[in-house]
Structure formats: C-alpha cells, structure tokens
Amino acid sequence: MKKELQVAALENGTVIDHIPSEQVFKVVSILGIEHLKTPVTIGYSLDSKKMGKKGIVKISNKFFEEDEINRLSLIAPSVKLNIIRDYEVAEKKQVSLPDSVTGLVKCNNPKCITNNEPMPTHFSVIDKENVTLKCHYCEIKIKKEDIILL
Amino acid sequence: MNRSFVSIADYSKEEILHLVRRAEYFEQYPNQKVLEGKVCATLFFEPSTRTRLSFETAVNRLGGRVIGFSDAATTSSSKGETLKDTIKMVSNYADLIIMRHYLEGAARYASEITDVPIINAGDGANQHPSQTLLDLYSIYKTQGRLTDLTITMVGDLKYGRTVHSLLTGMSHFNPIFRFVAPEELHLPDIYRQFMDINNIRYYEYTDFSPEVINQSDILYMTRVQRERFTDLVEYEKVKNIYVLTNAMLKGSRDNLRILHPLPRVNEIAQDVDDNPKSYYFEQARNGVYARQAIICNALNLK
Ligand SMILES: [Zn+2]
Fold first, then answer.
1. Residue B106 contacts A, CB cutoff 8 Å
2. Which pLDDT value is given to residue A131?
3. Domain CATH code at residue B293
4. Is the pLDDT of residue B273 over 90?
5. What ipTM, to 2 d.p.?
6. Which of A16, A83, A97, B288 lies 20 to 30 Å from B223, alpha-carbon distance?
7. Could you tell me the domains of chain A?
8. Would you place residue B27 in the very low, low, confident or very high pLDDT band (cuts 50, 70, 90)?
C-alpha cells in the first residue's frame, strides 16, 4: 500500500489518489485545500500503471464530508480516496455524482439570474451517466464538456 | 407552503385541470370580490402592456388593488438595486407579487426569497406560464376537452417559449403534435427527448401544407421575431414562409381552431380573421379568466 502511494506516509488524514494530472489543481481548489492550515502534499505527474500519469493529494488530519467529496465527480470521477487512521487505510471511498450541485458550477446562460445577482448557482443532475446538469433557475441544460467551475 | 406560480412544469395533470375549470368558472362569474382588501403588486422590470393589463384587469375584477411599475427604467433597479432587495421591499406592502423580468430564472429566485406568492408573468426567454394556462383553457373551451387532440405548432419553435410551455402543459393529455418550422428554427433536442421519454407522438415538417392543417384540431401559430436572429439575411429568408391564408383552411376539420399568442406580424393573413375557425382574439380575452384562476390559486382562495 505504501509503495502504491509513492509519497511519504500519513498518520491521519485523507489521500486523494488517481487524479488525472491536469485536474490536480482543480481538485485542490474545489475542496478549498489551499485554505487549510494542516500539512498538505501534492504529487503531480506521478507514474501510474492504470493512468500513465496521475496526481495525488495528501491532507493531514482532514476528513471530508460526503457531499464535499462528491463535488469532485464533476471534474474527476475516477478519483479514489483513502481514509488513513494511525498509518493504516481505514476506509476506501469512490466519488459519486450528487443529485444536485450548489454554488460550484457557473451557469452558461448570460441572461440567467444567477449571473446577474449576488446568489449561489443551483443545478440538478438530470443525467448521471453522461453528466448533464439543469439550472434550477433558467432551466438550461449543460453538458459535461461545457461545465465551467466557479 | 409557497403557492407561487413559476413554471407550468411544476403542475400535475390534476392541478392543470383544476385551474382550467376555475378559469371556466370565472368566465361565467367574472366579478367576484374575493380580493377585497388585498393589494397585488405588478412589477414589470420589462415592459409588456398586454400582459400587465390582462393581470390588472383580473385583479380589478376580483376586487383587489394594484400597485407597481410598468418599466424598470423608473425604478431603483435601474440604480443598481438587486432583485432581492426590490422583492423584499415590495413584500412589505403586497399580498401577491406578479412580476415580469428580462432575466431567466428571476421569478423562481424571487419565490425563494419571500413568503409572498410570486406569479411569473414572463422571465426572459424561459417561462410564461399564465400564457400557457390561457392557451390550455382556450383549447379546452373550443374542443370540449384536453385529451386526445392533434396540436399543430407553426413558426419559431426554437425560441418560442409559448410553444415549449404549451408542449409541456399538453404532455399530460395524450396529444399528437405536428411541428412546422424552418430548419433554422426547429424544435430543440431537449423537447424531442422529453416527448420520447413520455411516449408522445410527434411529426415534424418544413412544409406548411394543407395536408398538415387538415389533420389538426388546433393550429397554434407563432411569429418569427427579428430579434431572435443574429443573421438578418437568415431572418429575411424565413419570415414570409409560414403564412396562413383563408384558402389553406378549405379542407380543415370543422372543430379546428386557430390560436396565436399575439401580437401577430404577418403570419396570419387578414382574410383569416372572418373565418369562424379563427380564435386568437377570443383567446386573448380568456387570459383574464385564466389569470383570475391563477391569482386565486396563489392566494389559496379555492
Ligand atoms: Zn441558469
């Protein structure tokens, strides 16, 4: 297990593994990791048998809520989480697309109220397989490739 | 429970039928003083004289009072006040807010920031549910039912929000749809998917032919708006293609009625006006009864 992680061991915390390399910094920003006061290790362009190159983020003494983690599904559905307690992998988690997404994605419609008022956006996930969102306000649908994060 | 009226998609078959029957009731008894002592605000951030007068007539016939504005240029929102602040302020004065806004989703948002019921009188290109209810009532009234009808929609099916909302509202009633539009303005994919999922039969045409008209119970005409086009050459090409003339109605069904959300430009020739199958002027009058039904429903008055 430690070999697979490729980076120094963690006593307690969360390891986010199998991040596509180009998404590493998005993962950091979605989870607000740059604002944390605990030690964080970010691995980038590491060798991976499965993915070729991958990224990894290790956060000490931090355990995320389910809905925080699930936000990652919009940009990196393949990530795997290892919850570490006392140097051991206590739990493994995968991300799954939530039923709705609040305050994370920008609405692509410039005439949407959310782009003109100081308010959070809100989308329902209408197609989990293909990742299609529907704006709760202006009702336009946004396909996976058109998703812009706030 | 918030009884706001924001989008026709929020309403079940039973709720739509209830509203339609209430509209029928108000047509029989238009003057009901059920809003005595109530204040209704009409907030038109985007001007629409036709819709505003229809709503204000409905409030007046119900015995209520109206406050509001008909153009955002005269309000504090033109000084940069947020929609939220305007809605919060008006919520202190009014029992009901009827609002039209140029931004999509404005009515939904307003309904989430106040306990005063919101009636959406149009939010940009998104929804205009009171128009849909008056269309549904007009169909019900002229056909005696909403079920098992063939509805033919003609013109701008891409941007026409009345078309999309009517399609949604009719979807509960086993319709057959025929869509007649130029390539540039055909129905968006999401509505095709919606009909496929709900097993609704539909046919699409680019030719506006008597064959299509002759198989219809309702002919729903829409105007092709110049402002929808970025390319004006494209607009010039399509604007005169879908024009209904009296001669085209020769073989049509006896029960056929021609609807149009108005104002028309030239998509219905003047010689159709005298044909008893033309219904667009009566349709506009039905708007007052439909809006009386919507207002009473929002205020939980039956
Ligand atoms: Zn939107």
1. yes
2. 87
3. 3.40.50.1370
4. yes
5. 0.89
6. B288
7. 13-94 (3.30.70.140), 100-149 (2.30.30.20)
8. very high
Q: How far is A117 from chain B (nearest CA, A)?
A: 6
Of B82, B109, B190, which has the smallest distance from its Cβ to A137's Cβ? B109
Cα-to-chain-centroid distance, residue B66: 22
Residue percentage of chain B with pLDDT more than 90: 84
Mean of the pLDDT values across residues B249-267?
94
A interface with B, Cβ–Cβ below 8 Å? 109, 111-114, 116-119, 135-141
Cα dist from B79 to B73, B99, B105, B113, B294, whole Å: 9, 19, 21, 21, 32
The residue among B45, B58, B47, B15 whose CA lies nearest residue B105 is B45
pLDDT score recorded for residue B75? 67
Task: Locate A71 and state its tokens.
Answer: 């936000």
Give the one of B83, B103, B126 whose C-beta lies nearest to A139's C-beta: B126
Residue B1 domain flag: no
Stretch A62-78: mean pLDDT = 87
Residue in chain A closest to B9 (alpha carbons) equals A139
Contact list, A114 vs chain B (CB under 8 Å): 105, 109
Average pLDDT over residues A57-84: 89
Whether residue B108 sits in one domain with residue B142: no
Nearest to B277 by CA among B241, B236, B235, B247: B247
Q: In this complex, do A114 and B108 lie within 8 Å of one another by their Cβ atoms?
A: no
Full residue range of the structural domain in which residue B135 is found: 129-284
Cα-Cα-Cα-Cα dihedral sign, residues B279, B265, B289, B60: negative
Q: Does residue B168 belong to any structural domain of this protein? A: yes
Instruction: Look at residue A104 and give its three-state secondary structure.
Output: coil
Is A137 in contact with B105 (Cβ distance < 8 A)? yes
Residues of B serving a catalytic function are: 50-51, 79, 100, 128
Q: Decide: A67 and A95 in contact? Cβ < 8 Å.
A: no
**Same-domain status, B278 and B294:** no
Write down the pTM of the prediction. 0.87
